[in-house]
Amino acid sequence: GAGDYTITFNDQTNAYTVTKQGGGGGFASMYPQVYFRGTPNTWETTPMTLVADNTWSINVTFGNTPSERFKFDINGDWTLNFGDNQPDGIADQTGNDILITEGPGNYTITFNDQSKVYTVVKN
């Protein structure tokens, strides 16, 4: 959410800690932000929310086309992005688009920026 944050960077592990000022707790993360990019937002950058250590989440509504898909973008400029080549639920750097296979609807998508494990759950 909006507000002032303190970001602490560990240059040995490349881990970040983001702490909201004035109360809220911070969670550890590998990156300062992870963006969702896909067919629902015409491949624009939509920030995901850090909900636990290294775990980003977003709710997204996918349409009724056979080509609904998405990727995770770290910097918002495609220089570091993750898709999935297998698909096996573990994101691969510069991997293939992740396809939505359960049809149209609202989904909760999570991404662990440390293990690169992601989930796609239809709500």
What does this structure look like?
It is a single chain. The mean pLDDT is 90. The chain has a single domain (31-122), classed as Immunoglobulin-like, CATH 2.60.40. Helix content is 0%, strand content 47%. It is built from no helices and 13 strands. With 123 residues, it is mostly beta strands. It is globular and about 40 Å long. Strands 4, 5, 8, 9, 10 and 11 form a six-stranded antiparallel beta sheet that branches. The chain has a four-stranded antiparallel beta sheet with strand order 6-7-12-13, with no helix packed on it. The protein has strands at 5-10, 15-20, 27-29, 35-38, 46-47, 49-52, 55-62, 69-73, 81-83, 92-93, 98-99, 105-112, 118-122.
Task: Summarize this entry quickly.
The protein contains no helices and 13 strands. The chain has 123 residues and is mainly beta.
What's the arrangement of secondary structure elements?
Elements: E1 5-10, E2 15-20, E3 27-29, E4 35-38, E5 46-47, E6 49-52, E7 55-62, E8 69-73, E9 81-83, E10 92-93, E11 98-99, E12 105-112, E13 118-122
Antiparallel strand pairs: 1-2, 2-3, 4-5, 4-8, 6-7, 7-12, 8-9, 8-11, 9-10, 12-13
List keywords for this structure.
single chain; mainly beta; Immunoglobulin-like; 6-stranded antiparallel sheet; 4-stranded antiparallel sheet; globular
Mean pLDDT, as a whole number?
A: 90
Order of helices and strands: EEEEEEEEEEEEE
Gyration radius (Cα, Å) is: 15 Å
- Named CATH topology: Immunoglobulin-like
Low-confidence stretches: none
CATH architecture call: Sandwich
Helix content: under 10%
Number of strands: 13
Main sheet properties: 6 strands, antiparallel
Q: What's the tally of helices?
A: 0
What's the structural domain tally? 1
Distance between the amino and carboxyl termini:
23 Å
Taken from the alpha-carbon principal axes, the silhouette is: globular
Provide the β-strand percentage band.
over 45%
- The CATH class designation is Mainly Beta
Structural class: mainly beta
